[in-house]
């Protein structure tokens, strides 16, 4: 019975030291870091998409519409 108690105490001490080691460790990635990365990527992606939309809306689409209209209004001259 004494051996059982000693083994249980040793296992408990080992588990306690492992738990302390894990809690003191600052290794790994937290939830806040991941959430911040996702938020930054969404904001940057939105800015890039809105910039491309403004470029297409003001510069590319009017020119494209004009060229298509000229192509279909071709008189053969």
From TrEMBL:
Keywords in alphabetical order: Membrane, Transmembrane, Transmembrane helix
KW Membrane (keyword) present: yes
One Pfam family per UniProt: DUF6133
Transmembrane portions of the chain: 34-56
Name assigned to this protein: Uncharacterized protein
Organism: Maledivibacter halophilus
């Amino acid at each position: 019975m004494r051996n059982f108690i000693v083994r249980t105490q040793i296992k408990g001490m080992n588990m306690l030291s492992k738990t302390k080691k894990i809690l003191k460790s600052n290794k790994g990635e937290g939830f806040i870091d991941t959430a911040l990365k996702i938020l930054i990527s969404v904001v940057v992606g939105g800015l890039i998409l809105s910039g491309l939309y403004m470029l297409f809306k003001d510069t590319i689409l009017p020119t494209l519409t004009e060229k298509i209209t000229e192509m279909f209004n071709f008189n053969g001259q």
